[in-house]
Amino acid sequence: MNNKNHQPSIEEEEIVQQHVKDYIKELLPQHQGLLKELEDYAAAHHVPIIQGEVAALIQVLVKTSKAEKILEIGTAIGYSAMIMAEAMEEEGRIVTLERNEKMVALAGENIRRGGYENQIQIIPGDALETLHFLPGDYDLIFMDGGKGHYREMLDLAISLLKPGGLLISDNILYKGMVSSEELVQRRKRTIVHRMREYLEYITHHRELTTSIIPIGDGVALSYKKN
Fold this sequence. Notes:
Blueprint (H helix, E strand, L loop, with lengths): L17 H10 L5 H13 L6 H14 L3 E5 L5 H9 L5 E6 L2 H14 L5 E5 L2 H4 L7 E6 L6 H11 E10 L18 H16 L3 E6 L5 E6 L2
Parallel strand pairs: 1-2, 1-4, 2-3, 4-5
Antiparallel strand pairs: 5-7, 6-7
Helix pairs in contact: 3-4
GO biological process, one term: tRNA methylation
Organism: Isachenkonia alkalipeptolytica
Keywords: Magnesium, Metal-binding, Methyltransferase, S-adenosyl-L-methionine, Transferase, tRNA processing
């Protein structure tokens, strides 16, 4: 077959080849109990949660950074907050922001069921407003909110991150569309454009050293310089 004029479709284009993703998924220990229940719920109700390989990466980063104070932007059902809490010491604390009232209630119940109610605090409301009123000095910030608003939230987030802290941004390659104009769906064009602006900004930001990792839906790790 001559592929000279063949244009890849979204179904054909993967950030990581599917057989590699499957192999990594098989290697990683499978979650049990409540976390497995939340994974099944998310799949059944089309709730976006972090993928298994991203969850493993975040737990390693939380442990190695010895983060004691974490800010999460985008709670959803509370899955990623519990993933991070599991990797922290008992005295560690997580503040997580969520604007969807249904998700706030559901995440709150899940966090109570997991026994993390003294470790994880949910603050309801739009992050673009809430971020203005939070105290700073977070060791780690996990950016997983509205994809079209990452750039708007970034400067506020950086001001809350202590020097030597880590900013983790999820979904930054957005189904591969960010990397190729040929893959961009018309209705996703604005989000893709904004995500490209965000990546350009964090990779050249004078306060950050950034690495982009093509796992899951794309992850950016940004270290705040001292």
